[in-house]
Amino acid sequence: MTGIGGVLRRAGGPFYLMGLGFIMAFGGLAGDYYEHEIAGFSTALESFFAPVHLLIFSGIAVAALGFLWGLLRVAFVAGPSGDWAG
Questions:
Q1: Does residue 36 lie in a domain region?
Q2: What is the pLDDT of residues 68-82, one digit of tens each?
Q3: How many independent structural domains does the chain possess?
């Protein structure tokens, strides 16, 4: 039986990259909620280029890159019949 450390080691870089992306997006969502609760509706807060929105979108992009990296790792490194997690 493998512990959580072994699972994380086998998951590798794609897992960590997706986790970083989710943390970035969650931080952006929390910041966006906070700003809307404090400032209310403002045209500056609704811009695509508002800092919290950029954090949300970049977090989603980072998570997507990690997911694609994981797919490539499974498809080309281990092969379709390989045990990529072991």
A1: yes
A2: 998 888 777 655 555
A3: 1
